[in-house]
Design brief:
Layout: E1 3-5, H1 9-19, E2 25-31, E3 39-45, E4 52-56, E5 59-63, H2 65-71, E6 74-79, E7 82-87, E8 98-100, E9 102-103
Parallel strand pairs: 1-6, 2-5, 3-9
Antiparallel strand pairs: 2-3, 4-5, 6-7, 7-8
Amino acid sequence: MLISLEKGSGEAIRDFLGQSGLQLSVRIEIQSTGCCDSSLGLRADAASDGDLTEEVEGVTFLIEPKLYDLVGEVSISLADNGFVLNSRTPLNEWAGFGACSIKS
């Protein structure tokens, strides 16, 4: 398993994609948070050759194999203003935690 979704997060991601008119997959990637270390984030994107893919609750998620090897399984939960991503293996001192919205 590459991705696990906490209650309500799959529906929120589907709603975002539908309201934005995007028929793309959602990529898990490393994003800069500005003042802190890098964290995991989400971006609407098309699949590239070599991506690992997994469909969960009607959403296709993409992750590059090197990133998956680095962080392991990613769980996504719904937050007040976006999503919280946690990884099995932390990227930084924040223990794999990242808060984000979906970039398009």
